[in-house]
Amino acid sequence: GAVKPRVSCSRELELKTTLRELLVYIVFLTDLCLLTFGMVSTDMYYLNKAMSHLFLEPSSSEDDRSGFGSIGSRADFWRFAEGPLLDGLYWDKWYNNMTLTLQNNNSRIYYENLLLGGAQIRQLKVRHNTCSIYPYFHTFLEDCYSEYRYRAEDRSDFGLRNESEWKYTSASSLSPWYWGSMGLYSSGGYMFTLPKSKQESVEKLVFLRQNSWLTRGTRAVFIDFSTYNANINLFCIIKLVVEFPATGGALTSSHIYSVKLLRYVTYYDYFLASCEIAFCLFIITYIIQEAIKIVKLKKEYFRSAWNWLDLLLLVVSILAIAFNVYRTVEVSLLMEELLSDAHVYPDFYFLAFWQVLYNNMIAVNIFFAWIKIFKYVNFNKTMTQLSSTLSRCAKDITGFAIMFFIIFFAYAQLGYLVFGSQVEEFSTFQNCIFTQFRIVLGDFNFETIEAANRILGPIYFITFVFFVFFILLNMFLAIINDTYSEVKADFEVIPSQELQIRDLFRQ
After folding, report:
1. From CA 338, how far away is CA 331, in angstroms rounded?
2. Which of 165, 206, 340, 374 has the fewest beta carbons closer than 10 A?
3. Residue 240 in this model has a pLDDT that exceeds 80
4. How far apart are CA 123 and CA 217, in angstroms?
5. CA distances to 44, 272, 336 from 330, in Å
6. What DSSP letter does each residue of 428-460 carry, written as one string?
7. Helix, strand or coil for residue 259?
8. How would residue 423 be classed by pLDDT, with cut points 50, 70 and 90?
9. Please, are residues 119 and 194 in contact by the beta-carbon 8 Å criterion?
10. Within 10 A of 179 (CB to CB), how many other CB atoms are there?
11. What pLDDT, on a 0 to 100 scale, did the predictor assign at position 498?
12. HSE (CB half, 13 Å, CA atoms) of 490?
């Protein structure tokens, strides 16, 4: 009779299909990697670092209180705005104090980064009597100002009422809101653009300070400006934010985005454009393949975790393509309009926001794309053992996770209530959760916990480390270890398929 082939036809066909799909997928992944690494460069990091050093860190020659990070009151804000801010924005002299001849009166930050238009300063205020005063204090307090809420926002003219900085300007419907430390801020407000001359800007800021532009109702001030570096074809969009919470004092935060808005300039850029086209073709092909699978398998299709991963990858890819197309169209439409008037602030923050969204979408996309490789290497014995271990112990881990998080959240609530008003790491419930994960990893500050409560602090810390670190985490490892031992014993009985794959490659 005929000798039975060492590799059955069905198995051989399955392996051939898997290997072919893997090779095609490696080409797709290579294309995606070229795309993603072509989007970013180390120049972005160094440009961000240079701008951060200039505007956020006080120079050694200046008063430490004049730096952006040290702003703690309205007086500190004016000190920063009239000093380090204007010094950073207007570079009208060379390092040897020789006066520079500026083309069209345009400043070049670090002599390389063209300041686009002017810098815009904007504030948001709340109305007075937006909070209730307890009757006992009516004789002491006439009015009060609540924390920032969109409904409590003050939109009435104030002060001199003659210029834009004294009149409320409504936000563009497309402008993104800002998520700060103390609230979510709208993109409207009382705003003005600094003049092109440093001396005029100083006079403007002094005039506003003397006429009390910042009031008790001021809750946030935004400083926005954009630069363009032609050497590396990068825009840098900078937003400095000072929040004045209802508690008093001030909180600072900043966003510095270096983005490549003009995409296709060099030959390498056009090569990346061809990679983008190839990516779109791959996605169209995969959409057709998945549609055929869904029609053929129907409900069975949705019972496989790998199929769900395929769908997720396709959805994220489609969103990334949509973001890219939208951003490219918006740049081409807005660029000429934004740069038409050199004395007006060009709002590139909107474009940078969409660029960052696109970058984030691509980052998520490539993460799932790498995870999908496991789908094609399941014929390897070691990989199969690992995936079998995880699937077999899933129920045990779910039961363990419920017990773990009951204890974990109990400790988080205890920490929040006991240390919340004293320790920054426990100031919010979310911070408590992150802090406890850090404690598990060995990153903690015991002294601050003990200083906040000398009795409950040590008790909280010792019991948390004992129950969570020594008992629960070791139980978790024991569950996986026992399951892996069982799976490995089962696989030793089953004949290895790796020899069959070698035979297939020989053929």
Report:
1. 10
2. 340
3. yes
4. 10
5. 22, 20, 11
6. SHHHHHHHHHHHHTT---HHHHHHH-TTHHHHH
7. strand
8. very high
9. yes
10. 9
11. 53
12. 13
